[in-house]
Write a structure and sequence with these properties.
Elements (H helix, E strand, L loop, with lengths): L2 H22 L4 H28 L6 H14 L3 H32 L7 E5 L2 E5 L9 E4 L9 E5 L2 E4 L1 H4 L5 E3 L4 E2 L4 E2 L4 E5 L7 H12 L5 H31 L4 H15 L2 H20 L2 E3 L2 H9 L2 E5 H5 L5 E7 L4 H12 L5 H9 L10 E6 L3 E6 L2 E6 L1 H6 L12 E7 L2 E9 L6 H10 L4 E5 L4 H11 L3 E3 L4 H12 L5 E5 L5 H6 L2 E5 L5 H6 L2 E3 L6 H35 L5 H20 L5
Parallel strand pairs: 11-18, 11-20, 18-19, 20-21, 21-22
Antiparallel strand pairs: 1-2, 1-3, 3-9, 4-7, 4-9, 5-6, 5-8, 10-22, 12-17, 13-14, 14-15, 15-16, 16-17
Helix pairs in contact: 1-2, 1-4, 2-3, 2-4, 3-4, 3-8, 4-9, 4-21, 7-8, 7-9, 8-20, 8-21, 9-20, 9-21, 10-20, 12-13, 20-21
This protein binds adenosine-5'-diphosphate and magnesium ion.
Magnesium ion binds next to α11.
């Protein structure tokens, strides 16, 4: 509780005590007014002040204004205790609301409590405690057990297990030893490690995630915009309604001023739309926080809303449905011997960051001097070309071979064939194979069970490979042999069918498709910058089962938002009707208003628990 909240609570309790005392005192007339005016002003002076300030600014019809005229009206009618009570309960609601907002903000902050405070850097043989921003790329840092890893880096010495739960939601620690990478924001559990920083703090995983979370608060969902507009129209309507409710019976039908005045006031008290205005953004806030605890980053409330509506999922193949960890399974040389073929392939591929390239480089230690290769070009979705001894080398798929007019051969082994040509002379091919992620079939089945019935795989790979993977995972349709730009046009043509389409990719060669879809979902963001930038939702590790989880969190959040809207409007309409008919007094109005607000806030807080 903040100091301001504590002060407000004391003020509310004191005013309540004074209200009770005042009701027990046997005084009449002007004294009675003065006695009740004390707790009234005590608890309401700031509301009155704000209302006055807003009126002077020409800003009528806000909740302070409503509360001010409702309570002053009650005093005019001589209903002093009711007037004080309305103000008192309004403040109780406000207090509750500020505590709830503060709580969910703090718990998001706690969930995202991945910001490292210090880093221990080794400089001139000395250990120095500095802030993570001061560590330069390439410097060595020491991380002890229990500490957060402050920067992305590679372990130089030591072995340990690290917990990445705060980033990925994965609670099982993973073992890491020298030569392996560690990610900032994860916690070092068991051993002392010496880590070489691979990026500055501003570019580190943790800094990017934190800035992403901050941005997400500013992106509003469509329902939120609707609520704001609704409140703007609704409040004046109720004020006019209250006025008519008072004027028509008294002026035209000779009704009693006091009775219709009271009914009009009930109308006003109920009209405050605070429950809606507060609980809707609070629900989204909670949903985003709850998702982040599972390692799912949603970049704004608008994306939460879209995520709940997704009915078509389009997947990229490599790195998304498959592990993206290729292994060389065969080498079929044609004109040269096997090691000469692999020398060329590995040297050229060393210029690419594609997972296929990594597998070929890993499989063969090239004897070719890489500096002999010039004019290296990567052709996304096809392969690479480079100049060697005045001849153009091409390493890639059939499309690339056609482009260089090489007489290439189809390979009938399962897997992806990477062909190699020198000039237009075909040198042979290397077969690499990837494996489907073990949880892919379960994730696709989960999606189908949720009603996400259309699943499509897009790939630059061959038809046969695509078909095999669809069979293994249960994906409905595929489009094969696509270039990155074809993936975008496929997404566009699927979009035309009026479905809500999510594109799931890993950011390698598919960033344009990620940004073109209704919703771009990137996986395995602990590494790929492109994915974090282009996507709307980021699954921190590359577990596909996060996808149905993310959708179910979004649906739960939207359900709670909708419940709150219906509940709040329903109760208000009911009390408005009862009030107009004279069946609900000021007290019921007050309790209905505060009650709805408190229940809506409690309901909204449920989104935080996922
Ligand atoms: P996917 O659609 O499966 O994610 P990509 O669009 O990244 O695949 O690549 C499509 C195809 O292009 C690969 O199957 C491969 O044949 C070829 N290719 C892409 N990059 C490379 C590379 N660096 N070396 C060789 N072939 C490549
Ligand atoms: Mg890809």
């Amino acid at each position: 509780m903040t100091r301001k909240q504590r002060k407000n609570l004391i003020r509310i309790i004191l005013a309540a005590a004074l209200l009770i005392a005042a009701s027990l005192l046997p005084v009449e007339g002007i004294w009675r007014l003065l006695i009740f005016a004390v707790p009234y002003l005590m608890v309401g002076w700031d509301v009155l002040w704000k209302a006055l300030r807003n009126i002077l600014r020409g800003d009528f019809f806000d909740e302070q204004f409503l509360m001010a005229i409702a309570t002053i009206g009650a005093f005019v009618l001589g209903e002093y205790p009711e007037g004080v009570a309305v103000m008192l309960f309004y403040q109780v609601g406000e207090w509750f609301q500020s505590v709830a907002v503060g709580k969910s903000r703090r718990s998001i902050a706690a969930l995202m409590d991945i910001r490292p405070d210090t880093a221990t850097v080794l400089r001139d043989g000395q250990e120095l405690e500095v802030s993570p921003e001061e560590v330069q790329v390439g410097e060595c840092i020491i991380v002890r057990p229990g500490e957060k890893i402050p920067l992305d880096g590679v372990i130089l010495e030591g072995m340990t297990s690290v917990n990445t739960a705060a980033l990925t939601g994965e609670s099982l620690p993973v073992d890491r030893s020298a030569g392996e990478n560690v990610v900032s924001g994860s916690v070092n559990l068991t051993g002392v490690i010496k880590v070489k920083a691979l990026s500055a703090y501003e570019q580190s995983t943790v800094a990017r995630i934190l800035s992403l979370m901050e941005e997400s608060a500013s992106k509003k969902a469509r329902v939120e915009g609707f609520i704001t507009r609704f409140a703007r129209v609704y409040t004046p309507c109720v004020v006019v309604g209250a006025l008519l409710l008072f004027l028509i019976p008294t002026l035209l039908l000779h009704g009693s001023f006091a009775e219709w005045g009271r009914r009009a006031l009930v109308f006003l008290v109920v009209s405050c739309p605070c429950a809606l205005v507060v609980s809707v953004p609070l629900s989204f806030f909670g949903g985003i926080g709850g998702a982040s605890r599972q390692g799912i980053l949603v970049k704004g409330a608008n994306y939460m809303e879209l995520l709940s509506k997704v009915d078509t999922c389009v997947f990229d193949k490599t790195g998304t449905l498959t592990k993206g960890q290729f292994a060389v399974t065969a080498v079929h040389p044609q004109e040269v011997d096997e090691s000469a073929l692999m020398d060329i392939a590995a040297a050229v591929e060393s210029f690419s960051s594609h997972p296929i390239a990594a597998s070929i480089v890993r499989a063969h230690d090239s004897h070719l001097d890489k500096s002999l290769l010039t004019d290296v070009q990567e052709h996304a979705g096809q392969g690479l070309t480079a100049m060697l001894d005045g001849q153009r080398i091409a390493v890639g798929n059939g499309k690339l071979m056609d482009a260089v007019h090489a007489d290439w051969k189809e390979c009938h082994l399962p897997g992806t064939a990477i062909h190699i040509a020198r000039g237009s002379e075909y040198l042979g091919h290397v077969v690499v194979a990837d494996v489907v992620k073990p949880e892919a079939a379960e994730a696709i089945a989960g999606l189908k069970k949720m009603g996400v019935s259309r699943t499509v795989m897009l790939t630059g790979d061959r038809r046969e490979v695509a078909q095999a993977i669809c069979g293994e995972t249960g994906v409905n349709q595929f489009r094969a042999e696509l270039l990155p730009q074809d993936k975008v046009s496929q997404v566009e043509s699927l979009l035309e069918t009026g479905h809500t389409l999510a594109f799931v990719g890993d950011g390698i060669n598919d960033a344009p498709a990620l940004s073109r879809a209704d919703l771009g979902i990137a996986m395995g963001a602990m590494g790929s910058d492109a994915a974090i930038e282009a996507a709307d939702v980021v699954l921190m590790d590359d577990k596909l089962t996060k996808l149905p989880k993310a959708i179910s969190i979004a649906r739960k959040t939207m359900r709670i938002v909708r419940q709150n809207i219906i509940f709040a409007i329903g109760v208000k309409v009911l009390v408005l009707l009862l009030g107009a008919m004279g069946m609900a007094g000021m007290w019921i109005a007050v309790f209905a208003d505060v009650g709805v607000l408190v229940l809506a806030i409690l309901n909204a807080m449920r989104t935080l628990k996922q």
